[in-house]
Amino acid sequence: MREYNFDGLIGPTHNYAGLSPGNLASQHHGGQPSHPREAALQGLEKMRFVSELGVGQAVLPPQPRPSLRTLRALGFTGSDEEVITRAARDAEHLLRLTSSASAMWTANAATVAPSADTADGRVHLTPANLTQMFHRAIEADTTHAVLRAIFADPKHFQVHAPLPGAAHFADEGAANHTRLFTPGHKAVHVLAWGRSAWQDVKGPQRFPARQTLESSQALARLHQLAPEQVVLPQQHPDGIDAGAFHTDVLAVGNERFLMLHALAFVEHPKLLQTLREKLGDAFRSEVATDAELPVKDAVRAYPFNSQVLSLPDGTMAIIAPIESRETPTARAFLERVVAGDNPVKAVHYLDVRQSMNNGGGPACLRQRITLTDAERAAVTADVFYSPALHEGLAAWVRKHYRDVLKPEDVRDPQLARETMTALDELTRLLKLGSVYDFQQ
Ligand SMILES: NCCC[C@H](NC(=O)CCC(=O)O)C(=O)O
């Protein structure tokens, strides 16, 4: 069994459109120019770094944007160029919503259970429907197609359809999911949620809670997890109101280790007690109180949106965003973690600022998928990281991506054409087959 971090390749329309209420970075940077080429190269450098640590790394492709399929479904007609020109003229906001490169945050692409944990011994993957935010909801169909193309072998994989319905089963994927395990104990799946569709639970007052309890319960069922392996904590409403729109803004776990802010979950001491009971004495946690690390700093600097990686030597390393190094409270907390009685022995700060400015740190950019050698061998797409793939992708980015993009540049039909040309080439590079609408 090996964990692979499937990073989202940042798409050519990466821009700051201010689309996500409750995501303070997105709101703050809305309207500013972005740098798509730099963004994609920053993402590739993170992949290189993780791979060189000896950790499994792979890549998921961007999606075609603007989404012409969505614009056509909303009544814009004519050629591709006419659809964009008409949307730009009559409904510019819809054009912005359908132009986001948000599929880069693959933590939100799906929730996955490895074969070791599921009743039928297969890997189960459920694409997130992302219904809470329109610009993200339109990712689900293509994500489903991409996952079906990569995890095609039914002997090893079951790719479910996204959860049905609208707001009741709102699902944001692995951003609200952590799998913990210790030797000799069954793995525990922590599936968090922010609101309930049918139960009367006090939620946030200011910002939307995205994931429902009912979605998390449905994922546990679909993935055939034993009830004793599932824990369903509520995200703290005050944490959401402070800008923690996903669980992974204030908590991250790996194997026998969980680090969290006191405002990550409702009644976190109870959660930690449950985890200790299920995982035994080897389980370790580090909690930041609001006095040590004010939630405002945690939301701005994203120390919890780190990747906690198991290294070949048995220790763990944290990949944190450089914003955490620049914020004294966040940095002090991470240094305390490295010095503490837990498996983490190093912290590395990486620059993913282009993504951070839209509220996506290192953890948002990756989907963790644990595969056996046989499962990995069943994947025929060329999505696993290698220096050669890196070279190919970096050259592809340099060839197709713009240096600067202002939000209003999505009005330019040429940008859509450039994106289609780039993605068509990418599917050949990654041996994915035809996964996009425009290739059908
Ligand atoms: N896991 C991190 C997700 C960040 C993502 N940001 C955005 O969609 C911002 C896009 C913009 O405002 O242009 C979100 O909020 O879902």
Entry summary:
This protein has 440 residues and is an alpha/beta fold. It is 35% helix and 16% strand.
Could you tell me the number of beta strands?
15
Helix segment count?
17
Q: Nearest-angstrom radius of gyration?
A: 20 Å
Q: Roughly what fraction of the amino acids lie in strands? A: 15-25%
What profile does the largest beta sheet have?
3 strands, mixed
As for the number of domains, it is 1
What's the arrangement of strands in the largest beta sheet? 2-1-15
Which kinds of small molecule does this entry bind, naming each only once? Answer: N~2~-(3-carboxypropanoyl)-L-ornithine
Shape: globular
CATH-level-2 architecture? 5-stranded Propeller
CATH domain class name: Alpha Beta
Overall average residue pLDDT: 98
End-to-end span in angstroms? Answer: 35 Å
CATH topology: L-arginine/glycine Amidinotransferase, Chain A
Contiguous runs where pLDDT drops below 50 for at least 5 residues: none
Region (Disordered): 19-38
GO molecular function: N-succinylarginine dihydrolase activity
Protein name: N-succinylarginine dihydrolase
EC number: 3.5.3.23
Key words describing this protein structure:
440 residues, alpha/beta, three-stranded mixed beta sheet, 17 helices, 15 strands, 35% helix, 16% strand, binds N~2~-(3-carboxypropanoyl)-L-ornithine, SuccinylArg_d-Hdrlase_AstB, hydrolase, EC 3.5.3.23, N-succinylarginine dihydrolase, arginine metabolism
